[in-house]
Design goal:
EC number: 1.2.1.3
Strand order of the largest sheet: 15-16-17-14-13-19-20
Distance between the termini: 93 Å
Protein name: aldehyde dehydrogenase (NAD(+))
Number of domains: 2
Helix content: 25-40%
Family: Belongs to the aldehyde dehydrogenase family.
Structural class: alpha/beta
GO molecular function: aldehyde dehydrogenase (NAD+) activity
CATH superfamily of the largest domain: Aldehyde Dehydrogenase, Chain A, domain 1
Radius of gyration: 25 Å
Oligomer: single chain
Pfam families: Aldedh
Length: about 525
């Protein structure tokens, strides 16, 4: 059963537009929602609406804003199973993972509801008498949030919750292919007590979104941009924001390495590679890109990884499976091109075929509908710098494997693609773990754990091609949605000039002990 989804500005559904996007279940092809798309004018109008609503929302005491966030978390918890099943139905994510994603929204709300009472500034001592110095966090104004659909509710919450808590108004543009999930999350937040116009939902394609954002930045109705998506689009958004002297919060792609040392527990490493490489069908920004394995254990690692991957159940995402279908037809087309990057010097492992699962390319134990966007898992050994499979994000169920001799070489290989989101090392040697941490350029490091997985109170974000150093989650994200303001209050009754009218201490620096 499908329904029509429209943009919501100031609490009102936008009138039917001329263009429609069909959000379908990638596991079955079933229509989930007809999405009425807005345009650049609609996006800019939403930003103007948010600007008008923001001041009154910021004037609400921060603890009261925290209560709204608490209510949102309670509503998500009360609707958790229905929301998770909608996520699974719309993007094909395994139900267990979808439930975990919804739990992350709840965790984020739980963490930040207390921040409403902890938006701390500081009282700072002055160098002059009868004068006090203070610092305050001020909301930035209006945040434009643009998110991908592979995590249609969790990742948006990383932006929406802190932005709203800090007193900002928001224009949220989710991915079209996860529109029904986005609308559901919007409704839960809207019913938590948000005033109309503080959170606005806009469905638009990429070109209209960029044009609308350009217009809004020019008009001064957007003061912060948060974007989760590809490195290519992130670079364009960063350039656009730079023209307006703004620093966006960019969470981009990854080519996440996993180093396996000679002393690693190989069963543990294989378990980690299986989940981080193929969970969500490899469609995470934190998915494993390349396993960099010490040459002495490479044959055994490959044997075990191949065996585990062949045994994994792939198919119907409502069941107990490693992964379900690709998110949408456009990702299937892109992944087909990625498979074309497998070269003659590579060796393929992990399944009975390469490409889309079906009668022509069957897979043992497959539990899905062959009409869905299901693809065989692929392990490609022999990848090396200069190969597209080594150098670029693949965004699909494919993992590269290469070898190394020294840890310095492993670190060099791990950094070579130029991304810097997540990384992992499997080792029993603490010295190797800390050497890896110091040398790796990634914003996140795991030891004997996967490249995937985030917690609501830990900073999330990357460097290089993976982002501009901004961080989401935990208290660190507050710096994205607030600006520091300083206040100096002189109650001496006369002008005291900093660095000039100061108390002078007269020490005897020539003194020496007898």
């Amino acid at each position: 059963m499908s329904h029509t989804v429209r943009s919501v500005i100031a609490g009102e559904r936008e009138a039917a537009a001329g263009r429609t996007f069909r959000s379908t279940n990638p596991a079955t092809g079933e229509l989930v929602a007809e999405v009425q798309l807005s345009d650049a004018t609609g996006f800019a109008a939403a930003a103007s609406t948010a600007k008008r609503a923001q001041r009154a929302w910021a004037d609400l005491p921060a603890p009261a804003r925290g209560e709204v966030i608490a209510h949102a978390g309670q509503l998500v918890r009360a609707n958790a199973e229905k929301l998770a099943r909608l996520v699974t139905r719309e993007i094909g994510k395994p139900l267990k993972e979808a439930r975990g994603e919804v739990q992350e929204v709840i965790d984020t709300c739980t963490f930040f509801l207390g921040e409403g009472r902890r938006l701390y500034g500081q009282t700072v001592p002055s160098e002059m008498p009868d004068k006090e110095l203070f610092t305050f966090r001020q909301p930035v104004g209006v945040a434009a949030v643009i998110t991908a659909g592979n995590f249609p509710v969790a990742v948006p919450s990383w932006y929406l919750v802190p932005a709203l808590l800090c007193g900002n108004a928001v224009v949220w543009k989710p991915a079209e292919y996860s529109a029904a999930s986005a609308e559901a999350l919007y409704e839960l937040f809207a019913h938590a007590g948000l005033p109309e116009g503080v959170l606005n939902l806009v469905f638009a394609d990429g070109a209209d979104t960029f044009a609308g954002l350009t217009e809004a930045l020019g008009a001064g109705t957007v003061n912060k941009v948060g974007f989760t998506g590809s490195s290519e689009v992130g670079a364009r958004i960063g350039e656009l924001c730079g023209r307006h002297l703004q620093s966006p919060c960019l969470e981009l792609g990854g080519k996440n390495p996993m180093v396996v040392t000679a002393d690693a527990d190989l069963d543990q490493a294989v378990e980690g590679a299986l989940f981080s490489g193929f969970g969500t069908a490899g469609q995470r920004c934190t998915s494993l890109g390349t396993a960099i394995v010490h040459e002495s254990v490479l044959p055994e690692f490959l044997r075990r990884f191949d065996e585990a991957t062949r045994a994994a159940v792939i198919g119907d995402p409502t069941g107990d499976v490693l992964y379900g279908p690709l998110l949408d037809e456009k990702f299937a087309h892109s992944y087909e091109k990625t498979l074309g990057q497998i070269g003659t010097h590579h060796e393929v492992h992990g399944s009975t075929a390469i490409g889309r699962i079906g009668d022509a390319r069957p897979r043992a134990g497959f539990t899905g509908d062959a009409t869905g966007l299901y693809y065989h898992p692929v392990i490609v050994s022999g990848v090396r710098p200069g190969d597209a499979l080594f150098d670029t994000e693949t965004f699909g169920p494919i993992v590269g494997v290469t070898s190394y001799r020294t840890l310095d070489e492993a670190i060099e290989l791990a950094n070579a693609p130029g991304y810097g989101l997540s990384s992992a090392i499997y080792t029993t040697d603490p010295a190797a773990a800390f050497r890896f941490r110091r040398g790796i350029g990634a914003g996140m490091v795991s030891v004997n754990n996967t490249t995937s997985g985030a917690e609501a109170h830990l900073p999330f974000g990357g460097n290089g091609k993976s982002g501009n150093g901004s961080r989401q989650s935990g208290m660190w994200v507050l710096d994205q949605f607030t600006r520091w303001q300083s206040l100096n209050w002189d109650f001496s009754g006369h002008l005291q000039k900093a660095q000039m009218d100061i108390t002078v201490v007269d020490p005897d620096l020539e003194y020496r002990l007898p």
